Automatic annotation (TrEMBL), chain A:
It is found in: Cell membrane. It is a multi-pass membrane protein. One of its GO terms (cellular component) is plasma membrane. The chain crosses the membrane at residues 5-29, 51-72, 84-101, 107-128, 137-155, 191-209, 238-259, 265-282, 289-305, 317-336. It comes from freshwater metagenome. Keywords: Cell membrane, Membrane, Transmembrane, Transmembrane helix. It holds the Pfam family BPD_transp_2. One of its GO terms (molecular function) is transmembrane transporter activity. This is Unannotated protein.
From TrEMBL, chain B:
It is a lipid-anchor. This is Unannotated protein. It comes from freshwater metagenome. CDD domains: PBP1_PrnA-like (cd06354). Gene3D superfamilies: 3.40.50.2300. Residues 45-344 form the ABC transporter substrate-binding protein PnrA-like domain.
Length: 367, 349
């Protein structure tokens, strides 16, 4: 058990070091000192204002990461996070902007709408997989495109959106103050109140997976569909529910931004969470704490990338770095897996040897 | 990147001076601003960035044109990303401001709400925002364009050139901004030929902004329109327009460019024979005018609209393929400038 935690930390660290070395190589080729660049990034990225911003960004990333991780546990590749998230935050914004309600009720309603819409959208891919055998990757990519089209269609001023005079942006009506979540003052900045829910999502994910029958069934089905089925688990149902659950969590990805920052959905709302979420789940090894570190690290990289441009280094170098991290993490985990397997085999080998010995002694005794 | 000879620069400067004189300035608060010594110009780009032909690049050219004549002035650039939140954009502007950039140009309307916050934090820094006029602060200028007017002209040119009575419009991403191009183009084409058919296609819907930089999609859309009987296609789709040129070359039809004079792009060398004209949205002129106004102490807050009247909008004549329509075009320009022709900025539903 101890060695598993050890390897779980070594692998991502090795991946990050590998990518750092690669980036340093590229920087040296460009005659730029990697140390200076790293220092600039750390100075800028860990300034109080940026730590606050990074926490806010990381909070969204984290939820996307958990959504991806829950899918991974079921061997589902939920690339549909983007669509689930977009549709969810759009409808949450629309419903939230419709009326005023008592504060707690209003915010709860918005969050619920997000989770339900995301869950429903995710369950489409789950249904198609279970009933029609369609790969969730294919259906989710298509559902992403459909979700984008649907939101763009509905955001027109003649439908659910509006366009301010002199603006080229389209947005949903602003959510009334009762539907806005207060921010938490921290280091001179404002942290989205939704970060508390983010922590809660992480906890719930851990409890659900490790302390519940549902989680056991989920992991069992993920490890082996046939074995789980033979063991009495309704495996197809598990796949469907997991896909819906992953979608519901993905539906909460944009809530921090919506509830504490923009209070409406618009063309300039962020996108591209699916790939980030999947990368973070990989990097954090589907572990709630691991994903949290990964999410903050990612947010830090995104954020401090800005200072690279000013130092004459194209910020795409950060994208290269993130890419190599994901690649090396896959390789690193594969290596760790093999090492573990060897160790297990050794253990099994010695255990069966002792078993044999004891069996023979028993046999001798009975004779 | 783009072939821009010096002669043309001189011309632009003249246009610019004229433009400044006639600019439709809707000053909200008279801001007494003394001339500022410019040392660093900050540019925060929209998606796509500086290296893709289009309004980002033109905004950069505007800053670069200033730097060319003012030795020692630096340009600080920051790029955008898909995952940007308003907070990210805010920080980008703040980073430029704290690292000494003044003025700062925010390229694209997505910066509007972030700019409102940052501009208030840095009252001594002047900000210009392209394509938005919602930020009303004493140190902010909206640099906006009457894209529909230029699109009207190239729409008329397309209708004049068309033998089939059928023309096409390709939009990069379906947003209100690009719909202005569509509305003007369709109105322009109809002003020449009431019965003309205008096919409309958008390459992507937000938040998928790939439509602004996907020549393959542009080519496919243009081919579809040519197959459907169109013989001229206008692409308001940034880098995707090159695909439409390619389709036009392969099918012996006509293509119309956008923002800059696409005929003069080195990358479009092979398509010179099929580029009819380009709608000119001179973001470079707008940005340069903004920077110069700060340099000279004539900066005004509010929004400055660049249109046919002040030369911030126009159509290109390179290649001489529309020279025979000059008379007709001049009449139309005069009509628009005098207000006799009303150009819609929203497509008919």
């Amino acid at each position: 058990m101890k060695s598993r935690i050890f390897w779980g930390i070594v692998a991502p660290v090795a991946a990050i070091v590998t990518s750092l070395l690669l980036i340093s190589g590229i920087l040296l080729l460009k005659h730029t000192s990697p140390v200076d660049i790293l220092k600039a990034m750390i100075d800028y990225g860990f300034s109080p204002r940026n730590i606050v911003a990074e926490l806010n960004i990381a909070s969204g990333y984290y939820i996307a990461g958990v959504a991806a991780a829950i899918g991974f546990k079921m061997m589902l590749f939920n690339i549909g996070i983007d669509g689930q998230y977009r549709l969810a935050v759009f409808f949450a914004a629309v419903v939230g902007g419709l009326f005023t309600l008592p504060p707690v009720l209003h915010v709860t309603l918005i969050i619920l709408v997000g989770a339900i819409v995301g869950g429903l959208w995710g369950s489409i891919a789950g249904y198609l997989k279970v009933k029609r055998g369609i790969s969730e990757v294919i259906s989710n990519i298509m559902l992403n495109a459909i979700a984008a089209g649907l939101v763009a269609y509905l955001l027109q001023p003649t439908r659910l959106g509006e366009q301010a005079e002199g603006s080229n942006n389209l947005n949903t009506p602003i959510i009334a103050p009762s539907g806005q979540l207060p921010t938490i003052p921290f280091l001179g900045g404002q942290i989205h109140g939704f970060i508390i829910f983010t922590v809660f999502i992480g906890l719930a994910y851990w409890v659900l997976l490790n302390k519940s029958t549902f989680g056991f069934n989920l992991r069992a089905t993920g490890l082996s569909f046939k074995a789980a089925r033979a063991g009495g688990v309704n495996a197809p149902k598990m796949i469907f529910v997991t896909m819906a659950l992953s979608g519901a969590i993905a539906g909460l990805t944009g809530m921090g931004t919506l509830l504490s920052e923009t209070h409406s959905y618009s063309i300039s709302f962020p996108s591209g969470y699916a790939l980030t979420g999947l990368a973070l789940a990989l990097l954090g090894r589907n572990h709630p704490v691991g994903i949290a570190f990964a999410a903050y690290f990612w947010a830090f990289l995104d954020r401090s990338a800005g200072v690279l441009d000013l130092n004459g280094v194209p910020k795409e170098i950060i994208t290269i770095m993130q890419g190599t991290i994901v690649l090396s993490i896959v390789v690193a985990y594969e290596i760790v897996k093999r090492i573990n397997k060897q160790q297990e085999q050794k253990l099994v080998g010695s255990a069966s040897a002792t078993l044999k010995v004891s069996a023979t002694t028993e046999g001798e005794a009975s004779a | 990147m783009q072939n821009r000879n010096t002669k043309k620069k001189g011309l632009l400067a003249v246009v610019l001076a004229a433009g400044l004189a006639f600019s439709v300035v809707t000053a909200t608060a008279p801001s007494a601003s003394a001339a500022t010594k410019i040392t660093k110009i900050g540019v925060a780009f929209d998606l796509g960035g500086r290296d893709i032909p289009g309004f980002n690049q033109l905004a950069y050219f505007g800053a670069r044109d200033y730097v060319k004549t003012h030795k020692g002035v630096k340009i600080q650039e920051l790029q955008a990303a898909l995952s940007d939140t308003d907070a990210t954009r805010e920080e980008r502007l703040r980073l430029l401001a704290t690292s000494g950039s003044n003025p700062i140009i925010a390229v694209g309307f997505t910066y509007a709400s972030s700019l409102k916050i940052v501009a208030a934090e840095f009252p001594d820094v002047k900000f210009g925002i392209v394509d938005d006029s919602t930020v009303v602060l004493p140190n902010v200028q909206g640099i906006v364009f009457a894209e529909q007017e230029g699109s009207f002209l190239v729409g008329a040119a397309a209708a004049l050139k068309s033998k089939t009575g059928n023309v096409g419009f390709i939009g990069g991403v379906q947003t209100p901004l690009i719909q202005k191009f569509e509305a003007g183009y369709a109105a322009g084409a109809k002003s020449v030929n009431k019965k003309i058919k205008v096919q409309v296609s958008y390459l992507s819907v937000f938040p998928d902004f790939s439509g602004f930089n996907d020549p393959a999609k542009g080519e496919e859309a243009a081919r579809g329109m040519f197959d459907n009987g169109a013989d001229v296609v206008y692409s308001a789709a940034g880098g995707s327009g090159a695909g439409a040129h390619k389709a036009a070359l392969a099918m012996k039809k006509w293509s119309i460019g956008v923002d800059a004079d696409e005929w003069a792009f080195p990358s479009n060398k092979a398509y010179k024979s099929v580029i009819l004209t380009s709608m000119l949205k001179k973001v470079d002129v707008g940005v340069l005018a903004f920077i110069n106004s700060i340099d000279k102490g004539t900066f005004k807050s509010g929004s400055v609209t660049f249109n046919l009247k002040n030369g911030g909008i126009g159509y290109s004549t390179s290649g001489g393929r529309v020279s025979s329509y000059k008379k007709k075009m001049d009449t139309l320009i005069a009509g628009i400038v005098k207000g006799k022709i009303k150009v819609p900025s929203k497509p008919a539903m």
